[in-house]
Write a structure and sequence with these properties.
- The chain is of the alpha/beta class.
- The chain has 13 helices and 13 strands.
- A hairpin with a 2-residue loop joins strand 6 and strand 7.
- Helix 1 packs antiparallel against helix 8 and helix 2 packs parallel to helix 8.
- Bound molecules: pyridoxal-5'-phosphate (PLP).
- Pyridoxal-5'-phosphate binds next to helix 3 and helix 4.
- Pyridoxal-5'-phosphate (PLP) binds next to helix 3 and helix 4.
- This is dTDP-4-amino-4,6-dideoxygalactose transaminase.
- InterPro entries: DegT/StrS_aminotransferase, PyrdxlP-dep_Trfase, PyrdxlP-dep_Trfase_major, PyrdxlP-dep_Trfase_small.
- GO terms for molecular function: pyridoxal phosphate binding; transaminase activity.
Length: about 425
């Protein structure tokens, strides 16, 4: 059985297999590409960025790619490109990364947090309609393909009463996600990807906005670099002109040639990395299915698309031991886990400033208490997966035994 690329079992002690939660694999080819750019005398936005934008757009089936410094800045720029009145309502799932909602704030808009179905971790047409009924029609909608699962973007947009060109997709988890037989990356106003260290195409930092609209692509290309005319980056190249114009406000949110060259090299690995992620998910499925109190992650039906397995989020309902205690018990066994995410409405700033439905966000609250993300990355070995599953089985078992002891004698229950 294959154990992935450069599989390195990381053993500590005699029989404990350490399993870090995350891994950032910068391939030899990407390292060489970075070095090549560093030696070239041109390290910031330039030809490498243009080449990476074209390759990445092709991979995700979009017309244009615009390299940016992060997915967070990508979402902000994409929202700014919609040219909405300041303070407009923008719907977002509350079960997402805080940065995605900060982006709405920084774009000058007002986030409206939407509840999720605890089964999928994502909003439904019904939860969207609940928010729209209470607060009125939104100006835009952000949609996150949570964990790499497939959100039904057209259905959510329809429930929000919005055309697809008012939808910004947060595809931070969705490099490798397919809706039906098409990769995530086209069809909406803009789709924003992350190349953060733990994501499916890691560069350390970086992001990409894809769009099919040439006018939007051009606007984004300027707005990511001070609003300067789009070829201003050439001004320091031999033959480049020192003249440029600024027609709109812009950010400093460009991607560098170092990152882009690494990105092109990393892209060649993406198909095998995605295959390995799917293998790992299947291995978890097989071993965890029999453990009482564990619900496996939701995944799309075959006709609905393909999961990118950025995360493997299980739901835990162990009798008598809560999620946080399980995290501690796993940590004692050198197994790293995480929780994606603390619902945004539970974070102090957003609890005070975001628009939150008066009936609350019970789906997200319920889900949050049960969520646990297990390690999943291409270099994770089968032995490591097995160690995680064995530890979970053991914790579940031991806890059952403890409870039996309690009932038999010490009687704390
Ligand atoms: C990682 C992440 C982001 C932010 O990506 P950056 O590139 O780090 O800005 C946005 N949304 C979600 C859901 C994420 O997981």
């Amino acid at each position: 059985m294959t154990t992935g690329i450069n599989a390195v079992p990381r053993s500590i002690g005699t029989d404990d297999i350490a399993v870090p939660f995350a891994d950032c694999h910068i391939t030899e080819e990407a390292q060489a590409a970075a070095l090549r750019v560093l030696r070239s005398g041109w390290v910031t936005t330039g030809r490498e960025v243009a080449a990476f934008e074209a390759s990445f757009a092709t991979v995700v089936g979009a017309e244009y790619g615009v390299g940016v410094s992060s997915c967070t800045h990508g979402i902000e720029l994409a929202l700014r490109s919609l040219d909405l009145p300041p303070g407009s309502l923008v719907l977002s799932s509350t079960m997402t990364f805080c940065g995605a909602v900060q982006a709405i704030v920084h774009a000058g808009q007002l986030p409206v947090l939407v509840d999720v179905d605890p089964k999928t971790g994502m909003p439904t047409p019904a939860t969207i309609r609940t928010a729209v009924r209470e607060f009125g029609p939104p100006a835009a909608l952000t949609v996150v393909h949570w964990a790499g699962d497939v959100a039904d973007v057209p259905a959510l947009a329809e429930a929000a009463g919005l055309p697809l060109d008012r939808v910004v997709v947060d595809a931070a988890h969705a490099v490798g996600t397919y809706a039906g037989d098409r990769p995530i990356g086209s069809g909406c106003a803009a789709t924003c990807f992350s190349f953060y260290a733990t994501k499916n195409l890691p560069l350390g930092e970086g992001g990409m906005i894809t769009t099919d609209d040439p006018v939007r692509a051009e606007w984004l290309r300027r707005a990511r670099l001070h609003g300067m005319t789009a070829d201003a980056w050439r001004r320091y190249l031999p033959g480049g002109s020192w003249r440029y114009n600024v027609a709109a406000p812009g950010l400093k949110a460009n991607l560098t040639d170092i990152q882009a060259a690494m990105g092109r090299a990393q892209l060649a690995y993406l198909p095998r990395w995605q295959r390995r992620r799917a293998q790992i998910a299947a291995r978890y499925d097989e071993q965890l299915a029999g453990i009482p109190g564990i619900t496996l992650p939701h995944r799309p039906a075959l006709r609905d698309g393909k999961h990118a397995w950025h995360l493997y989020p299980i739901q835990l309902r162990f009798a008598g031991i809560d999620r946080d205690a399980v995290i501690a018990a796993l940590s004692e066994r050198a197994i790293g886990t995480s929780v994606h995410f603390i619902p945004v409405h539970r974070l102090a700033y957003f609890s005070q400033t975001a628009v939150i439905p008066s009936i609350g966000l019970a789906g997200a609250d319920t889900l949050f208490d049960r969520l646990l993300s297990l390690p999943i990355y291409p270099r994770l070995t089968d032995e490591q997966v097995d160690a995680v599953c064995a530890a979970l089985a053991d914790i579940a078992q031991q806890n059952l035994a403890d409870r039996t002891t309690c009932k038999d004698g010490k009687g704390t229950e």
